[in-house]
Amino acid sequence: MARQAHFSAPAPTPILYDRDGAFLAQLGHAEAGRTEYGYWVADPPPPRVGAATLALEDKRFWQHPGVDAAAVARAVWQHASGRGRSGASTIAMQVARLQNPRPRTLWAKAVEAGTAVALTWRYGHEGVLAQYLRLAPYGNGSHGIGHAARFYFDKPVADLSWPEIALLAAIPQAPGRMNPLHPAGLAAAIRRGQRILEALAADGTIPQADLPAARAQLAGTRLAPPPRRPDALPAILRLDKMARAALPDPANPLVRATLDLHLQASVEKMLRAHLAQWRDAGAQQSAVMVVRRDGREVLSDIGSAGEGSPGGAIDFSRAARSPGSTLKPFLYALALDRGVLRPDEVMQDRPDGAAGIGNADGFFLGPLLPRRALANSRNVPAAALLRRIGLHTAFDALRAYGLHDNQGPAERFGLSMAIGSLPSSLERLVRGYAMLADGGRASDLVWLRGAPAKPGQRLIGEDAARLVGLFLADPMARLPSFPRYGDSEYPFAVALKTGTSQGYRDAWTLAWSRDYVVGVWVGRADAGPMQGLSGARAAGSLANAILLTLYGVTRSDLTAGDFAPPAGRVAREVCADTGALGTTCPDRLTEWVAPQRPPAPAAADPVRLSITAPEPNSRIWRNPEVPEAVNRLVLKAESDPPVPQVVWLVDGAPVGTADPAKPFLWPMTPGAHRFQIRLPFAATASASVRVVVE
């Protein structure tokens, strides 16, 4: 009994609300196949609640030591004389039973009586009453007056009126029979509540003049249905542990999440509408996260398309998947930050630098500045850059950025780490892109309002992070791989990166604007392939719709503003294929360079290009006795002065790049064709040569 003469109670269970106070969920304790809520601290209990609770349950509570001898004697006499039964359990005895439930036997009653006396002696009458008001059952899984006030009336217990207090005080005697959410139970609770009001008026707690109005109000009580949990289960499950650990007040543990329920519903509607358009292409699932840049607050978190969809119970915002090309910006930022790369340095997108890695479109664009190499999402320059950084260095840096938690070895992923072999998740990517948006300062995402903010840690230099942001926000730099005026373009500044994993198994878009970071994933629950659904096509269109909705604009609206350039750098026009300062080359772009750059070199002599084989107007026959793969036409060219690379075009479309001094093999296709060569990203081109293939 000494062990039982201590107060014990389950931890308080929180009620979770969105950022504006809309109900999200109750987070209870699972016990014996049912869920219990409440157990909120009630110390000290409001005097009016205590008076109403004791009015019928334990009238001599303040006088007896935990056991009411007069009530026990009356109960024994009534039982022996056959004149009915009356309860003899005091509030202290009920506390003992609530803490340690036992079968209703005489021995159990004796143990409860002894425990009640010990509890009263140890904690005093006020403590016993407060413990009862924390543990007492109020029906529908609710425990404790504080939770019951919030559950039934959506108000703190201190704001309850006398009729509301009387109704709640009636329920613990028989929570099932007096369930106020059912008409018969509400009527029974009102009848007992009327007796409580009369007892309170009889002892002067309620003025007699106020009794009629209180009784009339109690008689007319109608309870609203309890709030229903919205369809945001993955987000709620994620918040459960955090909410329990961050209870602001054990007596009133209401927790505000950062989620915006209105936005959540809007994004979910858009997700389902877009997913319906992609189902014929094999898409099954999608996940979205929206984060406010300032403060990293999570405004929307949709982990799946919901019940009824394949894998609808899985939270795909946390699932590890192939990230496609979405890790490339971090490799560029790492290289820029460590001086491995300069923004005006030429990178090569050419076959001899591919190391077995090809581009998604099968073509090579030749020499590119980092801005275009990243914005065009070229695989070959990214793999070459990873080789320069070093596998181990990049692997460890990406882990430090929070983009993966693998332990290696880095060789397991190899250079394909740059194009999707290193698994990540939507949540990790959103956190990483928020770091880039914040100038390289890493910080955890915030899920609860008012939670203490952890100081951010700078993992990437601000100069490098801002440069990468400007690369990703430049729609002109995305040409020719991504067309203008599609889903990657906005009427306001947006930095974005798409990603598509091998076999179109995952489609990604990560984007940030002045105010928000948005992440979208589209794929299948079984990790199977989709039919041609890329990050730009599928995830990009949903991200575009979300950002336009967030700002309340359309594609035709114009909003001023741009991202801040790196401090200390100056804007200069540079040649797109050489990085040289000046305006003499035909293809130029504006880049932020270090101010100590030397002046532009003297203009070079113009380049003259020509095709030497085949001859114009040639008619060429394929050999029907050899495999199709062997039927190739040898193309030859000349350049004066020599250049390292030209782009071969057939019928106006690029088919590959090559050293003009070396032959280029073209798979022959029947019909009339025109051949031409040009300098990469320059207007200089040869005359076209017409050839007919039979």
In short:
The protein has 694 residues and is an alpha+beta fold.
Protein architecture, described:
The protein is of the alpha+beta class and 694 residues long. The model has no long low-confidence stretch (mean pLDDT 89).
What is the domain tally?
4
- Widest β-sheet, arrangement of strands: 8-7-15-14-13
Helix content: 25-40%
Approximate shape = elongated
Give the N-terminus to C-terminus distance in angstroms.
102 Å
| Number of alpha- plus pi-helical segments | 17
What brief labels describe this structure?
Beta-lactamase, Penicillin binding protein transpeptidase fold, alpha+beta, 5-stranded mixed sheet, 694 residues
Per-chain topology:
Layout (H helix, E strand, L loop, with lengths): L14 E3 L5 E4 L2 E3 L2 E5 L8 H11 L11 H13 L9 H9 L6 H30 L6 E2 L1 H9 L8 H9 L12 H20 L8 H9 L13 H13 L8 E3 L4 H18 L6 E8 L5 E5 L25 H10 L9 E3 L16 E3 L1 H6 L3 H11 L1 H10 L25 H12 L3 E2 L14 E2 L3 H11 L22 E6 L5 E7 L3 E8 L11 H17 L18 E6 L12 E6 L14 E6 L4 E3 L11 E9 L5 E5 L2 E6 L5 E4 L3 E8 L10 E5 L1
Parallel strand pairs: 1-6, 4-5, 19-25
Antiparallel strand pairs: 1-2, 3-4, 7-8, 7-15, 9-10, 11-12, 13-14, 14-15, 16-17, 18-20, 20-23, 21-22, 21-24, 24-25
